[in-house]
Amino acid sequence: MNYSELYKKIKKSIVASIKEAILEKHFYKMDFKEKKAWMKEWLKFASEKYGIKSPKLVISKSRVGEKNGCYEPLLNRIILSRCSIVTLLHEFKHALDFQKQKHVNLNRSFLEAIGKIKRSEDKARGWSVSLFAQASPKHYQRAVEKEKLLFK
Ligand SMILES: [Zn+2]
Predict the structure, then answer these.
(1) Tens of pLDDT along 67-121?
(2) Distance, CA 127 to ligand 1 centroid (Å)?
(3) Ligand 1 mean position to 71 CA, how many Å?
(4) How far, in Å, from the CA of 39 to the mean position of ligand 1?
(5) pTM over the 0.70 mark
(6) What gap in Å lies between CA 55 and CA 88, rounded to an integer?
(7) d(CA 70, ligand 1 centre) in Å
(8) Domain residues of the chain, as ranges?
(9) How far is the CA of 90 from the centre of ligand 1 (A)?
(10) Which of 11, 16, 22, 133 has the greatest number of beta carbons closer than 10 A?
(11) d(C-alpha 98, C-alpha 120), whole Å
(12) Is the pLDDT of residue 141 over 80?
């Protein structure tokens, strides 16, 4: 699957906000504090656009183990191992889907539950990579060439 082509209709203001961060605010040249401040602001902005409660943000390598990040639904908290835009977008998509889901069927079978987790993972990968590719095709291409993306 080509994740970068999965989502074609992401809100224009959301794509523009990532484009601005990369090309105008020079995210990749910011120091840690600036990156973290921008990510917190972006979470507030994007949460408002989508009408969800803004997730809290923690950056801690030791808290996520081998992973790049995770979303804790019950605490509405995103934990990232480092300041990565694509991982931030990935975890935000989990927050968005979790908060927007209609209801959770507690009687769901094991296979149904596994299927839902897999779909939610594909959605988070697709949304984050598509958004990144649309915001800056050049940076997306570079990330692919340097093998910096887990999914493309
Ligand atoms: Zn995920």
Answers:
(1) 899 999 999 999 999 999 999 999 999 999 999 986 656 667 778 877 888 888 9
(2) 11
(3) 8
(4) 18
(5) yes
(6) 11
(7) 7
(8) 11-145
(9) 6
(10) 133
(11) 9
(12) yes
